[in-house]
Design goal:
5-stranded parallel sheet; single chain
């Protein structure tokens, strides 16, 4: 076992988690009336800052997910491993803590291309290039590799390309991982990164507090969207990213969901909800929540998602 994985397992042992990491953590609310699955995009890190930083981020994020008892799925861009200068063995070692903690991994393509401007054959090749390390790693852990998430949540430039790509994914054993709780979390995450790099703890606390406020606003927005479009709230799927904001502040976010009556479940369980069999006819430049897609497919206009405040955008340099 490599030193990195030993350090992670040692960290989990301190937390009292052992090998079945995500089965521990805070007890769920009694008889939760809502459900949500947590997913994390752009592994190993949304904003890689060198190998040592990315290893530390992975240790912290996986440990925090485990401590919160969240059965998460992490979506990998293998190109980020190459950008860190890692060969196949070292790349697998960087991802392995997710599987060692009982979590799942999925394919997010190698290069995170925007399908709207990428030819169909290039998207297909990027999917296959995105599992050169991932598929063997999952097999060694006896775990399936069956989740795929579209970069930028964009599903194609036209109906024919969308249908052909979905057929290609199905042929290769993939199931699309939709998102209902979309958000611009990256704005707070970048501002937090910059404050963290300059060791400004007061700014980090302020950004994290507003992140919690912002995310609750997003959740309320999509709960209301669901009731307007579906007449009920389905099991939700939350999109987050692999970043220091979530590695260090995931606890309050999970607590917000529990306070709002959510049980935190796995992605497989969430997609048993009949809403995910509804038609999605949306074609456009934007990637968007499936709640918005279902609304547009029914001829309804979705509402405007909350935005990060100007001060956070300025702190992020945006």
């Amino acid at each position: 076992m490599g030193g990195f994985l030993r350090n992670l397992l040692g960290f989990m042992t301190v937390l009292g988690l052992g090998g079945l990491a995500w089965s521990a953590g805070p007890a769920p609310v009694a008889d939760p009336v809502r459900q949500v699955a947590f997913t994390f995009d752009d592994l190993p890190a949304a904003r890689p800052r060198g190998l040592e930083n990315t290893q530390a981020l992975t240790t912290a994020l996986v440990g925090r997910i485990a401590a919160e008892g969240i059965p998460a799925v992490g979506f990998v861009n293998e190109g980020k491993l190459a950008d860190l200068g890692l060969d196949a063995a070292a790349g697998a070692a960087l991802l392995e803590p997710w599987l060692a903690a009982g979590l799942e991994l999925g394919n997010h393509t190698r290069s995170h291309r925007w399908f709207w401007k990428t030819p169909l054959d290039s998207m297909q090749l990027d999917v296959l290039a995105g599992e050169r390390i991932l598929r063997g790693l999952c097999q060694r852990h006896g775990r399936p590799l069956h989740w795929f998430r579209h970069p930028y949540l964009n599903t194609g430039p036209d109906s024919a390309s969308k249908a052909a790509f979905e057929g290609f994914l199905a042929e290769h054993g993939f199931r699309v991982a939709p998102v209902t709780l979309d958000n611009d979390e990256y704005v707070h995450a970048r501002a937090y990164d910059l404050a963290r790099e300059r060791r400004d703890s007061a700014a980090m606390d302020s950004i994290a507090a507003d992140y919690l406020r912002y995310m609750e606003g997003v959740v309320v927005h999509f709960e209301e969207q669901a009731r307007r479009t579906l007449g009920r709230e389905p099991a939700q799927v939350l999109l987050l990213h692999a970043n220091w904001l979530n590695a260090e502040r995931l606890g309050p976010l999970a607590g917000m969901f529990r306070r709002r009556g959510y049980g935190i479940i796995g992605l497989d369980e969430a997609l048993k909800d009949s809403a995910y069999a509804l038609p999605d006819t949306y074609i456009g430049k934007r990637g968007m929540s499936w709640l918005e897609r279902w609304a547009l497919s029914r001829g309804q206009e979705p509402g405007e998602m909350p935005e990060a405040p100007d001060w956070v955008r300025a702190a992020a340099g945006l």
